[in-house]
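Encode chain A's predicted structure.
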Amino acid sequence: MIDIRSDTVTQPTEAMRKAMAAAEVGDDVYNDDPTIKRLEEMSAGIAGKEAALFVPSGTFGNQLALFTWCPRGSEVALGEECHIVAHEAGAPAVIAGVQLRCISAPDGVLNPAELRKRLRRQDLHAPATSLICMENAHSSGRVVSLADMDAVKSLAAEWGLPVHLDGARIFNAAAALNCSAADIAARTDSVMFCLSKGLCAPVGSMLAGPKDFIEAARLKRKVMGGGMRQAGILAAAGIVALTEHPPLLAGDHERAKKLARSLEGIEGIQIDSKAVDINMVFFSYGTDAKGAANIVEGFAKRGIRISPPADGRFRFAMHYWIGDKELDAIISAATEVFANPKGAR
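Encoded structure for chain A:
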């Protein structure tokens, strides 16, 4: 099956499997796994931060950042459609014990004037803002400019607040902006980025930031159940991911753009092909739940796995295992299925 539900569905490459099989390991809770240490040092350098910590997932890394930066009962300011709000199961309330102050942020861009209105000092009636969060690339598939990030960072500095970046797809953002991941992360105090989104590693994300922040996070990672043992087996795949895969992302972006242009020509599909910044194509196609199920089944019949629409929009994600041949098959299937959705099955 060609699977375009997400760039998290990728299988590890042969190089990753060999590295995992040969990985030198130790007990990471005792801080003696050499492959974990290598990955963390490598990640800190890539992000331009003092230190980094291996964590099981992107959600774990984001929530660990909130748990480490924020006093309980304080408030986090962030965009209302960002991943931390929309897709992390209400974890800030459960783990860090913080309140989220959500702000309209079209395509992930926080307006400094609107953000300023929401920042609060502690008083008898209000919690204090303890953290600002940004996301780049954004869950919408759009990329936030460095200038927009600078504006938020400047306001945060004025208020003496740290900034955390959900950089799950920071390497996609860097490829789109033609800059380095460190250039993006320089606009924030801490950053989480995924090894398993677009980079083909089977498991894991990294949290990077100041040395004292990472040491505090190491303890809280243990509290959250993230203290792993011979995790170097997983870290080995992450090292291959960071070494070999970021330069390949531009190809995923180009295939996404080609797919968007092809979908734009299909009657009934609503899409802005110029709004495709990274490897994900979002589009709407007016149909009810039964019609959407028919479309999903129609693609499956043609050997392609897609997700049903969320909030009225489909998402097709390009990744390492989608080459030109697979893309041609996706375009051909889309032309057939959307031309006759009722008979797609």
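The chain has a mean pLDDT of 96.
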